[in-house]
Amino acid sequence: YNNAFGASCVRMGSEYGWSPQEHSQGFGTWIQFDLGEPTEVHRVLTKADGKYGWISLYRLSHSMDGTSWKCDARTFIGNHDNWTVQQNTLSPPIMARLIRLHPMAEGGAGGGVLQAELLGRRSFSGFRHAKFVLNQMLQDREFADCKVTCGEREFPCHRIVLATTSPVWRATFKKGGFRESH
C-alpha cells in the first residue's frame, strides 16, 4: 500500500488522494474525519485526484464519541470523472464530532481515489451542546414530568427546571409540598 494514497492525502488540493487498501468497498471500508468538537455538517465536497479513478457512490456514518455510531440511510452520488468537484448537501445536516465516509462504488482506471472536504459550522461547545439537547428536551412534551395549573390553564413543565430557577419551587419539591392530580 502506497503512502501517497494514505489518509493524510484526503484533503482537496493534495497531489494524490486517499484510496482504500486493495480498493475494497462497503461499510467495512472508511476514512474518518475528526472535527475536534461537535460540528453541524451541511455539505460534503468530493473529487478524484485527476489520475487514478474516483469514488462514484458513498455513504456516511457519524459519532459524537467514537464508540456509538449512527449510519446515515442516504447513499450519496460521488464523482463521475477525475476532475469535477461533486457537492452533496446534507438535509438535514449531520451533528457529529467524527464522520466516516464509506466508499460504495468506484469508477475509472486504477480504482477509486478520493479528495474530500466537509463544510459546516462549529456552533456547539460542550456547554452549548448540552444546552441545545436540554432545550430540545424541554420543548418535547414527552419529557415533561409535571403540570402547573394557573387558573383554567395547564402548562407542562419539568421539576428539575422549576427547582433550579426558583428557591420557592426548590423548597416545595424538597419538602414534598406539592399536590399531584391525575
Descriptive account of the structure:
This protein has 182 residues and is of the alpha+beta class. The protein has 2 domains: 3-123, Jelly Rolls; 140-175, no CATH class. The chain contains 3 helices and 7 strands. It has helices spanning 126-139, 159-165, 167-175; strands at 31-47, 54-63, 70-77, 86-107, 115-121, 146-150, 153-157. The strands form 2 sheets. A 5-stranded antiparallel β-sheet has the order 3-2-4-1-5, with no helix packed on it. A two-stranded antiparallel sheet has the order 6-7. A hairpin with a 2-residue loop joins strand 6 (146-150) and strand 7. Helix 2 (159-165) packs across helix 3 (167-175). It is elongated and about 75 Å long. It starts with 30 loop residues before the first strand and ends in a 7-residue tail after the last helix. The model has no long low-confidence stretch (mean pLDDT 82).
The helix-and-strand class reads alpha+beta
Shape: elongated
Mean pLDDT across every amino acid position: 82
* Annotation field: number of helices: 3
Which series of helices and strands comes N to C? EEEEEHEEHH
The tally of beta strands, per DSSP, is: 7
> N- to C-terminal separation?
67 Å
Strand order of the largest sheet: 3-2-4-1-5
Largest sheet, if any? 5 strands, antiparallel
Beta percentage is 35-45%
The CATH class of the largest domain turns out to be Mainly Beta
- The name of the CATH topology of the largest domain is Jelly Rolls
Poorly predicted regions: none
Number of domains: 2
**CATH architecture term of the largest domain:** Sandwich
C-alpha Rg (nearest Å): 24 Å
CATH superfamily of the largest domain: Galactose-binding domain-like
**What is the helical fraction, as a range of percent?**
10-25%
